[in-house]
Amino acid sequence: MQIQQISVFVENKSGRLAEITEALAAANVDIRAVSIADTSDFGILRLIVNKPKEAVEALKAAGLTVSLTSVIAMGIDDHPGEFAKAMRVLADNQIGVEYIYAFVSREHGKAFVILRVDDSERAVNMLRENGITILSAEEIYDL
């Protein structure tokens, strides 16, 4: 089970994030999770949104370079050691993690972790076999 992540190439200049988020707002797209990795000249903005298709269309219409990537979303209990358990499962199965970002839902008592790995199908199977919840796209988009 994978979800769609939007990646946006962003110039590192004042106001750029405002323009991007305004384009999403105008398209009635709600952001679920966000991460940005930057250098002095540019960044890669990664987003999980409730309507990926509409978001891509809105961002491309705004003249941005956008791509969709499949990622995994885990739901783990918000307790010490739960994230370590999931990372151990991946390590023990030689599944490399390319990047991760997370957010916590106090309402649900869960931490939601978005991750990109080098073998998604195997990662999902191994995590599930070890009691880690893998979330569907609908579950993440509807948060």
TrEMBL record:
Gene3D superfamilies: VC0802-like. It comes from Anaeromassilibacillus senegalensis. Residues 71-143 form the ACT domain. Pfam families: ACT_8 (PF19571). CDD domains: ACT_Bt0572_1, ACT_Bt0572_2. This is ACT domain-containing protein. PANTHER family: ACETOLACTATE SYNTHASE, SMALL SUBUNIT. The lineage of its organism: Bacteria, Bacillati, Bacillota, Clostridia, Eubacteriales.
